[in-house]
Amino acid sequence: MNDLLKTTDLGLYCSAGGFYVDPQRPVDRAVITHAHADHARWGCRHYLATSSCEQLLRMRMNEDAEFQFLPYSESITINGVKVSFHPAGHMLGSAQVRLEYRGKVAVITGDYKLGSDPTCDSWEPIACDLLVTESTFGLPVYRWDDDQIITDSINAWWRESRDDGKCCVLYGYAVGKSQRLLAGLDPTIGPIYTHGAVEKGTDAYRRSGITLPTTTYVGSITGKHDWKGGMVVAVPSAHGTPWMRKFGRVSTAMASGWMAVRGTRRRRSVDRGFVVSDHVDWPSLLKAIALCDPEQVWVTHGYSAVVARYLQEQGRDARVIDSRSRMEDDEDESH
């Protein structure tokens, strides 16, 4: 499989095609799974991504970069390697990358989740010889509730806070997580406001054709304003900053997969924690591998050693290729 895919210091490299998938540093040719900064590195000369990723990718990349966009399921051949994108369900424009060369197929999941999401296309299983999968939440403790249960809980918290004369501040990553949260909010409860970074991502989503409730950019409001009963969607880094003072009495909440672990909400110093992740949980990870049924599994990110060992015990050919652990304190707060 070395001609099709191998690991290097710069990331996953397809030597036959002469390109990298989600390179860790700037390269000449990059195939991108999605527009989060830890996957779409600034400074590459040429980017290939999904058509639905275009607005987000252009939003954060250098203006002199070359872009090529491909619809889901359509293929392009690069030096004899057939490349296609397939929905990953992580966020708008997120994709699994399918590579086919000399009768062998490799699939790189990027970040992904199973289930439906009104802000992006749902994950699809792809038969392959090699599956490269993330394992950000690759422990049995991580199991997500149904989306509707979480959505109802967030809206109930908002109503209770409104009735108590407070403003709600809900933290989520600026691009992907925040738009998913916005899509689940009930605008009949009160007005919805956005942090500047969230508004920028939300605008890109709207320009990509995603329907979201009406929002008001916090920075566009001047003078005295009554924030009571409102919902502010903000990035986690805003918590505890002087920016928060303008809202008066607030109730704060974090939306993250890490909220599934007892004690995380306390360490974050927020009032509520909602378990919302754009990554596969433990059951979904195992389900995805079973549906793709690869001969080999390469596990990367998060609890990769645990997942690889479990798969080996189940009789699969599995190994760790990257042991980096990405936490929500880093630039990628998408978890």
UniProtKB/TrEMBL annotation:
Annotated GO MF terms: RNA endonuclease activity
SUPFAM superfamilies: Metallo-hydrolase/oxidoreductase (SSF56281)
PANTHER family: BLL1145 PROTEIN, CLEAVAGE AND POLYADENYLATION SPECIFICITY FACTOR FAMILY MEMBER
Protein name: Beta-lactamase superfamily domain protein
Lineage: Bacteria, Pseudomonadati, Planctomycetota, Planctomycetia, Pirellulales
